[in-house]
């Protein structure tokens, strides 16, 4: 049977190649202890997998997702509702890539699950609420299904003009475009203050990340090709993304042709500007797609961890307190992998855990660097922590730039 | 039952009334009959071909829940097996029935004032060690299995680990146990029997005969362990330092003698591997400076609370290894085990720290060897040091006979020089989906075990389905006495049937 998993068979105990490996059932990806009890900084993954943390059953673990993919590859099981539920409960946060070191080279463990989801999608169609995303992107061009587009940058940024100077393009993504335009505007203001000449697309295409998570690989490819074509058409050489997930997908797919930056890596490459004093204690939360994926197909291939901290350290008076789950061991907030659409309770629970962790640190601000994650955190903010302000790094920077 | 049968919901022998009683007792959310759950809990590290599925998986939230589960199972004569985080074959439910996931019993209480740690049965051994580090304490046996390995399995097997050269096996450091029996009764033994007194949990021998040792190697027979107590010692990782020596293939005898001498010197840990084990690290360029003729690999962990103590231990090891012709290799010590001397920046290097501690993490031998060869098939046995050569040669002979003495199968030794015995694990890497490989593994199993069973080996995670009934029958009248004890506490023989009796 032809399967999308074929390119990954080296990790599915394929018998026609050697070496060929797979899960050995060691349990490290779900065991309720640190992966390496003797290490300090490298190893704070005491709770490791988003769905396993929530359900506590062993079928909701990377080991299970891997084993189900392997059994499916060998024709020993078929796709049924249990298989669908398990695979789509994976947040694609990539923490298993940090814990398990078996899959190496140009592939990573979580990618096998992503591809198995595509196989499931092809054979059985979209899963739960992800169907809405697929429909919205197909019909309206964005995940929210907004048909009447209002350019977020009116009066703030010059839209791309054919034949104009478009070398640097700010790509804001669906969430900043349609739900949180103030973050897109803040990012634009920061770039202007840094004297960066840039433009933005009025008809910005969706990046394809959410379609990829839904398993619609063909749809996802069509989306990032639209971004690529827009860049080619307008002579864009550098793409600066606000969203961590968009950054990952666009860097991974277009990185060979266009320089793809996350807003934090782009700003960090500039000279430190003069900034206004900003009082307060804040925690910075590393988005999974910056700390663990970052545009790379391989585990540990790329990380954006230091740059956001460097930028925040520029702001006088801002005290940054580190969360326990930080850097490569950052905690997925439940926004990755389409979870808010497919498992809303799980997604909210996870966000609440992070909010609790930040609140316990006694900070008044939780800063992150990806609008979809920020929106999910704000939506999940309970009554108990109304004192905690959740901000995007661009909002904080824009507020600190001396006028 | 095939996996396809399982997926299609066939063949559940546990009566629905039992499943509903379990749901009433534990809550619906703690009982699962999903086929994916029954499949996942049937899996075991290193024994993936032994697939027997439970009918129902349950999660206790307290020792009292375990007692309730056993009472229900006993009333209806339904088989029960308890499983920790991984499974090494003994927790495969041979006759279906109820599988208890112990990992929800994971409380850890450190009592630094008495240097004691009390854990629930499913507490991760790694988490316990991490918690103890907050108090600069440790239970000085560090099994190399992963974070999923739990305290009760480490006790029952009984597990060895780094530290076993000086301290023996995990059960040697256990000072008390709590166990639930099929009739729903819970008893505490050793130091835990003293728990309700003002002095509390502090000493294994509280008065009268001490029963804690009775529950080692029970493999879910008799009852289910629910809590354990261990003695701890002072510990900081800065007190560790590693060494590494190699020997040629013609130095097998000298290598064995050198190891035994270090055991008598009470070095913290001495570990034995052969060239097959290190080949993937050479292929991947992790170690570059390895002599072509290096066949046997001895890694040593020293544990000294002062620099002078560490230096003295290092000198002892070096002198013994030199005496028997071993060659020191600092690069291999650093790249494959841990720092030769602690330095503050050690964990800030690009590679994962303490590679030997993190079995399937990045830069660890477990990951490297798996991706270069396949699934593990492991045997695990204790024997006296004087049989070191014989067991090695036996393994090599069997591997050659069955056709796995090659880089394709990496048939290596991974052995712990324990305080009271040499504990060797033999590995063959194979593809569990390749019928040829499966045939070879089966043949290895049939040829390797009977010889060492006959000689009197003791096994880690013993069960008669793997090791044969002879492994238990060698005990003579004691085996008969065990059966009588089993009949007394488990008259319906519901506890993991087919594994010990």
List the secondary-structure elements of chain A in sequence, H or E. HHHHHHEHHEHHEHEHEHHEHHEHEH
Rounded Rg of chain A: 21 Å
The CATH class assignment of the largest domain in chain A is Alpha Beta
Number of domains of chain A: 3
Strand order of the largest sheet of chain A: 2-1-3-4
Number of DSSP-assigned strands of chain A? 8
CATH architecture of the largest domain in chain A: 3-Layer(aba) Sandwich
Annotation keywords:
heterodimer, A: 403 residues, alpha/beta, Rossmann fold, four-stranded parallel β-sheet, 18 helices, globular, B: 501 residues, alpha+beta, Uridine Diphospho-n-acetylenolpyruvylglucosamine Reductase, domain 2, Uridine Diphospho-n-acetylenolpyruvylglucosamine Reductase, domain 3, Vanillyl-alcohol Oxidase, Chain A, domain 3, 3 domains, eight-stranded antiparallel β-sheet, five-stranded antiparallel β-sheet, 19% strand
Provide an overview of this structure.
- With 403 residues, chain A is an alpha/beta fold.
- Chain A has three domains: 6-124, no CATH class; 152-268, Rossmann fold; 280-400, Rossmann fold, CATH 3.40.50.
- Helix content of chain A is 43%, strand content 8%.
- Chain A has 18 helices and eight strands.
- The longest helix of chain A is centred in the middle third of the chain and has 18 residues, at 217-234.
- Chain A starts with 49 loop residues before the first helix and ends with a helix.
- By secondary structure, chain B is of the alpha+beta class.
- Chain B is 33% helix and 19% strand.
- Chain B has 17 helices and 19 strands.
- Chain B has helices at 3-7, 16-26, 35-40, 63-76, 125-133, 151-156, 164-167, 252-264, 275-283, 307-323, 330-336, 365-373, 388-402, 435-455, 464-467, 470-473, 477-489, and strands spanning 31-32, 56-58, 80-83, 98-101, 108-111, 116-120, 137-138, 174-180, 186-190, 224-231, 233-234, 240-247, 269-274, 296-303, 327-328, 375-383, 413-417, 422-430, 458-459.
- Chain B has an eight-stranded antiparallel beta sheet with strand order 15-12-14-13-17-18-16-19, sandwiched between helices.
- The relative contact order of chain B is 0.11.
- Classes of the chains: A alpha/beta (403), B alpha+beta (501).
- At the A-B interface, helix 2 and helix 3 of A face helix 1, helix 3, helix 5 and helix 12 of B.
